[in-house]
Amino acid sequence: MGDSIKILSDVRLPTFPKLVERLQSLYDKGANFADFADVVSTDSALSMQIIKAANSKHFITDNDVSDLKEAIERLGTGRLMEIVYALRFSHISPSSNISIEEYWSQTLYTAVMARKMAEYLELEKPSRMFTLGLFSNIGNLLTLVLDDEEKNQVMRISKHIKVARHNTDDFLGYSMEIALCDICLLYWGFPKNIRYPISFQLEPQNAPTGFRLEAYVLNAAVYMRLQKYKSQVEIPEEDRETFARSFKKLVMDREIAHSFSASAENEVKAMLSFISV
User: Fold this and answer.
1) Are 105 and 272 spatial neighbours (Cβ–Cβ below 8 Å)?
2) Pick from 199, 197, 201: which is nearest to 171 by CA?
3) Distance CA 35, CA 31 (A)
4) Lowest mean pLDDT among 12-26, 86-100, 164-178, 258-272
C-alpha cells in the first residue's frame, strides 16, 4: 500500500497543511487555548482570519477582540478547527469554469448540517461531523481538478488498495468521486475513522459497525444538501430508500432536520465571508 501511495506523487493531489495537522493533534489531546494560539500565531495570515471570524456577526457576543487567544476562546476549539479546515482547503480550485463559491456553499452546508444533527443526537465532538461533511464532497472537486490520466491512475491505485486491504472488489462504493475522496484522504494520512464514514456516505447500511452511525448522519446531511441545492433533480428510488432509512435509523424526523436549515444557511454565509472563496 505504501508503494501505491508513493506513486500518487505524480498526481496533483492537494497537500495536507502541516499546521492543520499540528492543530488537529492539539484538538485530539484536549489542549488549552494558549497551546492553540501558539501554533496559530506562527501563521500571521491565519491569525488575522481567526480574529476576523471571532469578530464576525455570527460569533460576536461582546466587544471586538484583537488578541488571538481571546479570539480562540470566543470561538471554542471545535469551531476553531472547523474554520481552519475551511480556510485551508477552500483554496482548492479547478481550472474549469464552475462556480467555486457555489461548490463551497454546498459543501459547507453539508458540513454544518452534519454538525447540527450530531448536536441534536448528542454525539461526542459534533465538530468531527463538520470535518466529515467538509471532506465528503472533495471527490467531486477532484474530478474537476485532475486530468483524465491522473484520474485513471488514481482509480487503478484505488482498485489495487481496496483489494489488498479488504479482499473485495466493491468496498469503496460505486462512484469515481467516492474513490477519489478515499484515496485523497488516505494520501493525507487520515485514519479509517475519518475515511470510512465518508466512503460509505451513500450506502451507510454497508458501513462497518463502528462507523455506521456517522455514515448515517452524513447520508442525512447529503440528503438535506440535495433538497436545498438540487431539488429539481430526480433522486433514484434506491437512493430515496437509503435516505429514508438514514432518518429512521437516527430516529430523526426530516422536519427536525429541515428546522436546522435556516440557521445552517446563515452560518454558511458567515463562513464564506471570511474564507473569501
Assistant:
1) yes
2) 199
3) 6
4) 164-178
Q: Which residue has the cell 456516505?
A: 201
Residue with cell 501505491: 4
Query: Which structural domain range is residue 198 located in?
Result: 2-12+94-275
Nearest to 195 by CA among 217, 211, 219, 216: 211
- Does residue 30 lie within any of the structural domains? no
Q: Under 8 Å CB-to-CB from 11, ≥6 apart: which residues?
A: 146, 150, 153, 154
Quick: pLDDT tens for 28-73.
Answer: 899 999 999 999 999 999 999 999 888 887 766 668 889 999 999 9
In a domain, 89, yes or no: no
Length of the chain: 277
CA 85 to chain centre: 8
Strand ranges, E, within 116-269? none
Report the distance separating Cα 111 and Cα 136, nearest Å. 8
